[in-house]
Amino acid sequence: MAADELYEGPYCVLSVVANRCYKRMRYEVLDHDPTHNDITAFFERLKTALPHRDLTLKGMTTDGSPRYPEPIRTVFGAGPHQICTFHVLKELTQVTGCEFC
């Protein structure tokens, strides 16, 4: 599963998508920036919903935000957590304050 947040004006949409079928499994709209408590509660609801869809979480992919690791460990334990390759490459290729440019 992949977890991310999208900012739309004053709102934040937390979302989890199944990687293999690109189907949104759960989302929630917040009127503030998500806290660890918001994300933990969101993941708790996801964890409850998975067996009803006959699904098992095998790992979580995020954008590298420090908001996710603690809630993931709290709710799902020490399962696999990886950073999205796109976000890693984006960070690596951004040039800011380069003395050679």
Secondary structure: elements and pairs:
Layout: E1 2-8, E2 11-18, E3 23-30, H1 36-49, E4 60-62, H2 69-76, E5 81-83, H3 85-93
Parallel strand pairs: 4-5
Antiparallel strand pairs: 1-2, 2-3
Q: Biggest sheet, open or closed, and with what strands and sense?
A: 3 strands, antiparallel
Name the helix and strand elements from N-terminus to C-terminus, one letter apiece.
Answer: EEEHEHEH
Q: How far do the termini sit from each other?
A: 38 Å
Sum up the overall morphology in one term. Answer: globular
Q: Strand sequence of the main sheet, in spatial order?
A: 1-2-3
CATH architecture: 2-Layer Sandwich
Give an overview in words.
The protein is α+β, with helices and mostly antiparallel strands and 101 residues long. It has a single domain (2-93), classed as Nucleotidyltransferase, domain 5. The protein has helices spanning 36-49, 69-76, 85-93, and strands at 2-8, 11-18, 23-30, 60-62, 81-83. A three-stranded antiparallel beta sheet has the order 1-2-3, with helices on one face. A two-stranded parallel sheet has the order 4-5. Helix 1 packs parallel to helix 2 (69-76).
